[in-house]
Each structure stands twice: as C-alpha cells, then as structure tokens.
Amino acid sequence: MQRRKFIKNTLVGFPLIFSPALFALNSKEIKPNGKTVVVIGAGISGLAAAKKLKEKGFNVIVFEAQNKVGGRLRTNRTLGLPFDEGASWIHGTIANPITNLAQQAGMNTAFTDDESLVCYDINGVLRNDTAFSHAEAELKTILNTLKNSGSATQSFETVFNRVHPTKVNDRLWKFLLSAYVTFDLGDLDKVSSTLYDEGEELLGEERIATNGYDMIPNFLANDLTIQLNQRVSKIDYSGAKIKVTHNDHITEADYVVITVPLGVLKSGNLQFIPNLPTAKLNAIQKIGMNCVNKFLLTWDTGFWDNEQYICYTPEIKDKFNYFVNVKKFNPKINALMTFAYADYARQTETMSDTQIIDEIMLHLRDIYGNHIPNPTHFLRTKWQTNENSFGAYSFIQVGTEMQHFADLAQDINDKLFFAGEHTHIDYFSKAHGAYLSGIREANKIMVAFYLGR
C-alpha cells in the first residue's frame, strides 16, 4: 500500500550529521573509557542507537517496558502465523535502510500490487474499474492543490468539505479519503490543511513482511544488553550523572537516549527533572498522534476475490472498508486483514471481539452473500489504550509546525537525546524514519564524547 507515496513521489537523500569529529569516529576505533549510555525503549530506533554505540565501545543498557523487543514492530504469532500488529510494509525499497536490514535479518517480503484491487459498493454492487481509477486520479489532483485553499487554523476536512461539497456524502469518496488519506495522515478533522503533504517518500516497490516484521528488531537486539519488563518512570538529569528510575531502581548514565513513542511523551507518565525545555514540551503537545487498528480473520477456506486488495464503500467512514488478501502472499493461509482509522479505531477498543467480528462480517456478507461462514480465528490491536504507545504514529495536525519535529529531535545539554519516528522531519510515521533517528542520535553521542562534552 503506497500511502503517502500517493501524495508525494520524491526521492531524497537521508539527512546526515556531518562533522570532522563524526567522520573520524566512524572511520576508526574509539575508547569511550567506560562511558555508559542508557537507551529507553527497545523499538527499532532504540535498538539502532544501542547497536551502533556498542560497536563503538560504549557500555550500553537498554530498558524496555514490554516483555519483548520491537516496540511498535510487534508480530503476534499465537495462531501459528505472523500477524504484524504495527508496521507491515517496507514503504519504498530504493535507498531504504529497512531493505538491507530485512535481508540481513531474514525477514521475507512480498511485492504488493496496488493495481490488484477490486471495489464493491453496498448491496455487493461491483464498482466500475474505470470510474474508480478516475476518482483516484481526481483525488491525486485534489491533494496536490487543496493546500492552496487551506489556512493554518483549518483542518483538511473543513477545507475539503468547503471546496468539494458534492463529495462529502459520496460513499466512494468517503472510502478514498479514509483508506488513502486518513490511514496515512491521521484524523481528517485534525490534520493540517496546509502541511498535510509534508514529509518525503522513497521510490521502489511496496513490500509486505511475510514471516514477521519482528525479525528486524530481533536481529538488531542480538548481543545487546536489554532488560525487559523495565518501565522507566523518571529521568533526573540535574547532576553530572543522569539518574534513570525504572521499576523503583535507579541506574546512572553519562548519556540517555529516549525513544518512547510520542503518545507516551504526551501522557506525562515519564517524569523529567528538571522539566523539559518549553520548545520540546510545546512540540509534544502540537504534533498529533494517529490511531489505526488492525484486525486479522482466518477461515478454513477462502471465499473472496483473488486480488491483493478488496475495497468496500459503506456509509460510515473509517470502518472495515479495506481488506488485504493475505492469501496472495501466503498461499497456505486463508486470511483477510482489515483496518479501522481515527475515531472509529478508538471506538473499536471499547468493543468486544464478537461485536467487531459481527461488524466486519456485515460488510463481507454484503459483498459475498449471507452464506459465508464466520471466521475460525480473530486477532486485533488496541493501539490507543496501549500504555506503551497511546496511538499508532505521529502526524501533522492543525497547529503543528515542521520546526516541532526538529524540536523533538533536539538534545539537551549533550546528555539527553531523543529518537523515534516522531523526531524525523522527513520520515515521521515510518519505520525507516525511526531507524534513521536512532543512528542520528548515536552519531550525536559519539560527537559529544569526542569533543569532551
């Protein structure tokens, strides 16, 4: 699924931190003299930073609140098949560090063809391919121009509804905005109407993990010192040494890398002494946190179209309108994966498994008939109420400025360093952005040590 590539199709180079000190540190061995780095969070950004710093001789300890590494790169294997609860795709394989990481880690992937798609309206009416393609092309044009009608105080939804009032209640347009825009950008009633197309995308294929995205964090975690089930509650950086409180224990460090998700920073559950600078606190508040939940259903036999994607255009937006045919890349598995976005995604977290299955089956039975069976198994996510994330990924909402991403990435006194997808101004919301942010912060620490800070 191409997601923001649908909006922007630009290849750019990765931003680098360049200095003579960093060049020297990357080209020769260094001796950190027992300097300790605590990394908070064993997601891909924390693991990337930890791995590089350990390779350079730092004493690195990773604290992870969950019972396994990966953060939002979580793979549920309880059914004997991999269900990626967070990241599923490599979005653009060209010049993407995840491409090489996947190969090194043994993560198998499959090409997902965006053209392999069928779309149904209510009552199982098959939508015309030409009309669907025409609407997609029109949406692309709208996304290229809507910001010209926007303002800093208005949301994408407000401006879209004003400029294109005839599309507001059109079921096809509800689907397109939901599956192609809300999925990527966040709640449309909150997304900025002027900055929604910020961020960069990579060229290349869209490839989905077929044996679990967790292969990557498991690979990065190899040989690292990681303490699981350690929830950090306080970071005191007022003295010469930083004191990190975790499970009522205190560990001292020379440098700390904080990689917890933006939602955790927003929650206030992590205390800083002294308080974080005003610019960073403002950025935490101003950048939005999206919610997307995923649902996997399996059957003994398949009954659906032999296409990669099955679309459905119901009256209610953001609700089980997009199905990924898992069987296309895992032929032995009869499964569909579907999604809920924004407020409806949050609403699903108050619903029982039975309620959700019933709602999904209403859509599938409207497409394929009342004779189709209920699924044999069902898995789901609850990202909004997950205390380790409080959402899925960051987005640009009304009031967000691009400077806020830079503010989140700003270190404090060469002691506290911040990584995660929400700190990458070009690749926020992406796994490769998270990974690159971890490398970036490791480089900063190496430079700080080299310069004696």
UniProtKB/TrEMBL annotation:
EC number: 1.13.12.3
Pathway named in the protein's UniProt entry: Plant hormone metabolism; auxin biosynthesis
Highest rank taxon of the organism: Bacteria
Signal sequence interval, chain numbering: 1-24
Annotated substrate binding sites: F339
EC top class named in words: oxidoreductase
Catalytic activity from the UniProt record: L-tryptophan + O2 = indole-3-acetamide + CO2 + H2O
Domain Amine oxidase: residue ranges: 44-446
Gene3D superfamilies: 3.90.660.10, FAD/NAD(P)-binding domain
Residues that bind FAD: S45, E64, A65, V232
Transmembrane parts of this sequence: none
Keyword Transmembrane on entry: no
One GO-annotated biological process of the protein: auxin biosynthetic process
InterPro entries referenced in this protein's UniProt entry, alphabetically: Amino_oxidase, FAD/NAD-bd_sf, Flavin_amine_oxidase, Flavin_monoamine_oxidase
A GO term, aspect molecular function: tryptophan 2-monooxygenase activity
Keywords of the record: Auxin biosynthesis, Oxidoreductase, Signal
Cofactor dependency: FAD
Similarity remark: Belongs to the tryptophan 2-monooxygenase family.
Listed name of the protein: Tryptophan 2-monooxygenase
